[in-house]
Write a structure and sequence with these properties.
The protein is α+β, with helices and mostly antiparallel strands. Among the domains are: 6-53 and 100-285, Beta-galactosidase, Chain A, domain 5, CATH 2.70.98; 713-802, Immunoglobulin-like (Sandwich), CATH 2.60.40.1180. 29% of the residues lie in helices and 24% in strands. The protein has 18 helices and 34 strands. It has a nine-stranded antiparallel beta sheet with strand order 1-6-7-8-9-16-13-12-11. Strands 2-3-4-5-10-15-14 form a seven-stranded antiparallel beta sheet. Strand 30 and strand 31 (776-777) form a beta hairpin.
Amino acid sequence: MQHPSDQSDVIRLDSPAARWLDAFPIGNGQIGAMVFGGTETERLGLNHENLWRGVTRNRTVEPTYQHLAEIRERLFARKWIEGTELAMRYLSGLKYRVQPYQPVGDLTLRMTGWDLESRPIGLPNYRRSLDLATGIAEVCYTVDGISYVRQAFVSAEHGIVVLCMTADRPAAISATLELARTPHDPACFVYPWSRGSGFGFEAHFGEGIAFAVEARAAARGGQILPGECASLAVSGADELLVVLTIAVDYNEPEPSAWCAHHLDGVPMDFNALRKAHVAEHRPIYERVKLEVETNPDAEALPMDRRLERVRAGGDDPGLVALWFRFGRYMLMSSSRRCDQPANLQGIWNEELRPPWESDFHNDMNIQMNYWPAEVTNLSECTEPFFNYILRMAPEGQRITRNLYGCRGVCYCIQTDVWDRPTPESAGWDVWTGAAAWLAQHLWTHYEYSLDQDFLRQKAYPFMKLCAEFYEDYLVRDSQGRLVTAPSQSPENRFIGGAWPVSICVGSTMDFLLIREVLTHCIQASEVLGCDAELRPTWRKILADLPPFQVGKHGQLQEWLEDFEEDEPGHRHYSHLYGVFPGDQMTPDHPMGRGSSLGGSSPLGSDSPLGQDLKSCPNDPGGDLWRAARVSLERRLAAGGGHTGWSRAWTACLWARFLEGALAYEDLVQQLCRFATNSLLDLHPVEIYQIDGNLGGAAAIAEMLLQSHGGVIRLLPALPPQWPNGSVTGLRARGGFEVDITWQNGKLSEAQITSLLGQPCRIGWPDEPYELTCEGKPVPTSRDRESSLAFGTEAEKRYVLQPA
């Protein structure tokens, strides 16, 4: 087996980026930059997590809940168009819009003193690269026999962008540096300045939001002269260092003063800055290492040619592994030590009006951003996401009362940095499941950490708010079942329904989310020893929900009725939520038993989620798991998976269906169809969205390790393209860290470190095995699901091998 060298963490290209989409992203959670790698001119596109327009930041909704009964009357009469028209009139976002995420501007470096007219086209020895392990973008090239090197990174340790240029000949660096607010924005008022070795600008939008950027330069040799506006000139230097920071009055009342004070504390020493940055970045990145057999011929190619080779049918297993590494890098760089969660573009954007405002989309996109966080050992990246969820709750409660007349919270489909989860897009926003889906991530964090303080103070109070909403919102239909009305399967339509989205009674996803959040509330209340009086109410609701339906094609129905889909290849897989990211449907339990940490559901065998539901009258085989797979196959056969993020979700689903080859093929398709030369994921046509990058990383983690339902599954969907390899540092629910090595497609060794001393269950076939701890045999037992069960001690490592 050929283990990857350090180059396996490097994305390399042999030409500068001709467009923003092919530049390299660097970031520290707060500040992001795109590095183009130009020669005569270098551009760093700058962003700050808190820079958003705020024209409607104080938007509210008026009470309209009194119209809910009228809307329901139409929907229960199956008058879908009339019901939708009323819902859009009274519950939808016809007046306000979310605000767009904004670019800060550009830092531009222009070389001077070069004889450009006499130089041949192209530069020898050009190379630009992004080293994921260090978070450093590097550009190297030769001009007139002089070798130049530029390095750029965004330091989380110092809160700055760092750009350093060196040459192998003295006094070879002459350049101008400029900061500008780009693109031109007539609604932004900019005040540039330059003095001494510093330059920058203050700015504010018409509605009053202010921000500032300041850069300082230092040269070894040569001299620095202030320029006009926000610029300066450097001549005859051996080395040039630029440091830069940004502040927004979102949380810094005096942005300019803050920038100046912050840079006063920054050492103007590149080696010291680089050392501190790498010391902070590398250990986090290297918590997880994935090694697979590689194709040396492919790895030697620059990324654009490497992608071309795969698109032509070439084999490059190392590229899929790099996709995983890049996804972790992107989450680290956009959601760490910061205020805001990763938005649709993470933290990188160059447009004044980016697609969908680069907002927070609550019906899949922001959730997908965090699918890899826990399992790939980046738990700290969830903190800004959780803060986002919880800080909207007070406003969310007011909105819920005004729109639906209910207690608790429901969030609408999209929002922005101003924490108003109001309805913002006509039709799409008449959906009540966003808060419950967001609550899943709070519970998942508890499953991995078993942090009862987090459960008590953050997760459970929010989950209870979701439960309160459903207690009030659910209504009985003519059969006595508790259903949601109005309801929708996010962004999808059925024939006979309204456009742009069909509103109806009872989508499958609603019932999946309700079952999940109520089940988790019951479990949390038992763990915390509180609210015993609420559990009967929650159990009664669970018992009165409709069973899931199998349709005429053998598919899991997306709606309570077996509607014909208007778009059979739709990009969303909402009704398959119970397979992934949920875990209500598994191979062991076709209809699931709810999540449980100890292997048995606290709900008890008489609970709706504790039953196999094989008595479901319209599903005599009881195999809703199989029906869910039929739904996925039908959607793909109709052209589904036609966006980068949708293809990533498909790969996650195939991993849960234990189909490693199919999951791997979807990841290859994602790279072939939806990746730029710098590996940014695309939504057609050429719209960057970070969710596809992060969803792809989650899919690969699911192929290697699964731990839902209280059982750790080793290599559950190992693709045949990776016959030999290893992965270290993945996390499993219950407080375990797992290292896995495999040979010839089979497990050769797993090392399970118990972080909390919890009992452990490993899915294991009826085959001989050896389990040891510190060289001594560990007693095990087989439970009713044939898993290996054994006790553990905290901080001890358990080694499992086939006998």
